[in-house]
Task: structure prediction
Amino acid sequence: MMKMMNDKMIPPQQNSDDKIYLRVNTGEKIGSWVCDKYNVTENKTLIREVWIADWNYTGLKLDYKNVLKSLEKFFNYFTEQLGDKVKSQSLNLDFSLADKGIPVKTIHYANGEENGSSIIKEIKEEELPYSLFMVPSGFTKDNLFDLQNDFGN
Result:
């Protein structure tokens, strides 16, 4: 009996950044997805609640996991470059659970209080016109970090 219980329990995952990811519930419905809920703690403090929908039920390709992981690296690098002048939980992405599925709901905490949340209501893949990615004429390229220094110093 004890072995069966232990086999069904998923041990907390600990990543190199000392965050602990603990599955606390399964079968919660967020929108049209059945999700597993994870609590993410750092130094024994709750910093995030995340509801993960299995990739197989989102309609997205499994290859998109790698896209999520690269977005995490990009935004976390971007946040580091901004330094202490701009701290935003929304820019600090964490897709450590991407192998399990896509985060469809996230609640962020700071100092024990909720300080932000996000929820995905629909996932669909569609073709976008190339023109959406064209820089309009008349725009010039500036370095964001140079602009930050102009305003901050």
Q: What stands out?
A: The chain has a mean pLDDT of 79. The chain has three helices and six strands.
